[in-house]
Amino acid sequence: MSGLSLDPEQLDRYSRHIIMDEVGPEGQQRLLDSRILCLGAGGLGSPVIQYLAAAGVGTIGIADDDVVERSNLQRQVVHGESDIGRPKVDSAADFVAEQNPDVAVERHETRVTSENVEDLVAEYDVVVDGSDNFSTRYLVNDACTLAGVPFSHGAILKFEGQVTTFEAREESPCYRCIFPEAPPAGSVPSCAEAGVLGVLPGTVGCIQATEAVKLAMGYGETLDGRLVLYDAADMTFDTAEIRKNPNCPVCGENPDIGSVHDVEYTDTCAIGD
Amino acid sequence: MHVTVHVVGEDAHEVDLPDPTYGDLIAAVDLNPHEATVLVDGRPVPEDAPVEHDEVRVLRLIKGG
């Protein structure tokens, strides 16, 4: 922490945080000193970016190689009509600049690959995965787990969302503990194929942002070891316990994956796939 | 064998099958083994392994963001 140095405007802006004993000026300073990486500035990334910026997370990295399309606007709330055709990282950065001048945005207009993921993840305290494909999800899982960087996992489809947090501690499970390999390409539909309720990523992304804020502040209990399934159609939440798997290929007792370079992040994301 | 299959986010399914594998349980609740995993005590079990528990949870994979 760089010391308590909240100026009068910050004391005002963050007063509803600071007044809470659980946060206080120290917790707010931790947020201002924190660095959080958002992978994806789409449906999940939008609310994550919004709330991390509003909360005063000092540095937000945004990694995305897409441009804004009109079909995004039904749910990707940091982008607007005039952003169509612009890189999402630029549109999202402009949104943050307008929302909170305390926040620095680091733009990574690139697809996250095994060549850049380690350097990218190493620069941040917490990672929020809002990606939309299994290759990136497994890559992020492996990179964060191996590097010991906590990350939030969120996924959405139609009316359903899943969200959990992997803290990358010794006893923490990871995504491969429950899904050791990705399913064959095409076997699980995407939002483009099956659709998604526009407001759904707002709910799931807000949970992810909540988890990231708690990790940055060092307060509260995360979803590590629990996966929440949210069904917007009947407005229910269900929770599944998930435990570290001794046979996990990345964090198990005899892991096969010691580096992201051990895996081809295509198809099933298996060793030497 | 009688097994209670809790699909996470849905109601429980009561399944009766002779000598089922965990993959048979996934099929019995109308899911594809590629899109779901069976968890026992919070850990996945091989889909081709014979069922040894009378209560399991099934978790579906989704990827959208």
Automatic annotation (TrEMBL), chain A:
Domain spans labelled THIF-type NAD/FAD binding fold: 14-250
Organism this protein belongs to: Halomarina rubra
PANTHER family: ADENYLYLTRANSFERASE AND SULFURTRANSFERASE MOCS3, UBIQUITIN-ACTIVATING ENZYME E1
A Pfam family hit: ThiF
Annotated GO MF terms: ATP binding; transferase activity
InterPro entries linked to this entry: ThiF/MoeB/HesA, ThiF_NAD_FAD-bd, Ubiquitin-activating_enz
Assigned keywords, A-Z: ATP-binding, Nucleotide-binding, Transferase
Protein name (Swiss-Prot/TrEMBL): HesA/MoeB/ThiF family protein
UniProtKB/TrEMBL annotation, chain B:
Organism in which the protein naturally occurs: Halomarina rubra
Protein name from the UniProt record: Ubiquitin-like small modifier protein 2
Superkingdom in the source lineage: Archaea
